[in-house]
């Protein structure tokens, strides 16, 4: 493998990893605040992808507008799931919350299945993403380059929100100790809503990236992607936003490189996330950026 | 479990129900009943590790898959294997393996338990949610292996034409036996140690319980019965493929035991009847319906929408599950005698 091909794989891997990372951020933030593995999160990504598809297909609006529509719908769905399904269970056993999350996940998958039908939808990729860039022997598509750039920009915005604004302080404080912080006059439900807004919009953006990269949409597309993204979040150290992005990058990169180097084991691609995760947890039980969960978050 | 009057009465009631069931239900009903019995085996054994020992494991799908494949390979004849394996020739030991029903089921259980004991060392290094994600990963890896070892499992095509050697007495009998064994374990010295691990692992360790050993024991036992349940499932369905053993199976079992009440064996049984029977009963939703004179089209998937809404509602309003940690014999006592 020459250097250019390696670089091509590297960029592909980082691009794939960015898409995992955008979802992993949502997992890690919700886990940080609520200690909930939000199984419905990946389905919010799927809702985002379908919303964009629906907006272009039925309303005939442009791609750029459909992105905003997708984010809007995802945020509404994300906030509603919190209000309806998670909020009443704030003080109950965590397992009930988890089962509810699984229930929401089934609900979203199947409501989309019933509404749009079970047949896979093919996503209309806008023309400007369809070009191919040749660099010597390496072949790249624009989306592969755009995805990591957007991800890093969004991460910067997110870190700014978390560390420089009032709401960021509140989010970090809630992650530290939700009960005490609520007693000190912070409206915890409102802050949790903001966490869901952030997570859902990032998931929607990731969903559109997936739709452009792999333009076949199914109601169950979120299941596999979500599990891997969650593995990425744990790999990076759950509760840490930078860790989630790092975990996503590592995961995407490993997957691409593994398939490139061992094509005969390509079928095991989907298992890599977990093999890697298990290995890391054996040596570092809290993940790479893992802070001891009793002490600090983000 | 002390053999008391309640216990005997409940056992006799279940056995007599099993005996008369073929005369009550039709073919379709019997199929659902078979399914319910198999899921009682799976749920009761999953309950041992999740509910009784409190270790949040998410990999029964892996053990069920192992059991199903071992049973299928054992029961298929050599000629049939040559026909079925399309992607690659079957491995020599796969061809040689050919047993009757009982050894096949036992082998399924033993292999599943062996895998569980091997996994215990890495799995129980972590706790809580990390344990959940690690076990989720192992369940997933087992499924991926099933897809990618075509000389053993016939890859994504799966195995079919598995001889249907069982009837309701097999599934029902094994279900009753499993529940009895589980109750015996729960009420034994080891069962109390498991509950101690669930309630406070550090404290249990401090009073001299070897928590790793107890967790491994629970994990292995539960895997053994999940393997047998998987074998029965393979025989009942007569066709298996890796798609059957996704997280959906694990989630289904998790829903069953939480709905019934974590840690309660009766809860596991009631949960199974509600979830498996209920989702079967909701099947009418998928077809065309006549609502107040309006004819609607068929909506495949509507059943699952309604199912998930009911699930969310139950979790919102019955948080401890239906039985909590109680058993049926705690509520309805015959002659009200204390143990």
Automatic annotation (TrEMBL), chain A:
Cellular component aspect of the GO annotation: plasma membrane
Its placement in the membrane is given as:
Multi-pass membrane protein
Where in or outside the cell it occurs: the entry states: Cell membrane
Q: Which InterPro entries match?
A: ABC_transp_permease, BCAA_transport_permease
Q: Which UniProt keywords apply?
A: Amino-acid transport, Cell inner membrane, Cell membrane, Membrane, Transmembrane, Transmembrane helix, Transport
BP term (GO), one: D-alanine transmembrane transport
Which GO molecular-function terms appear in the entry?
L-isoleucine transmembrane transporter activity; L-leucine transmembrane transporter activity; L-phenylalanine transmembrane transporter activity; L-valine transmembrane transporter activity
Protein family according to the UniProt entry: Belongs to the binding-protein-dependent transport system permease family. LivHM subfamily.
Write down what this protein is called.
High-affinity branched-chain amino acid ABC transporter, permease protein
Source species of the chain: Malaciobacter pacificus
The gene is livH
Automatic annotation (TrEMBL), chain B:
Against CDD domains, the record matches this protein to: TM_PBP1_LivM_like (cd06581)
A Gene Ontology cellular component where this protein is annotated is: plasma membrane
Q: Which GO terms describe its molecular function?
A: branched-chain amino acid transmembrane transporter activity
- Highest taxon in the source lineage: Bacteria
Location in the cell: Cell membrane
Q: Any idea which UniProt keywords this protein has? A: Cell membrane, Membrane, Transmembrane, Transmembrane helix
Q: How does it sit in the membrane?
A: Multi-pass membrane protein
Q: What is this protein called?
A: High-affinity branched-chain amino acid ABC transporter, permease protein
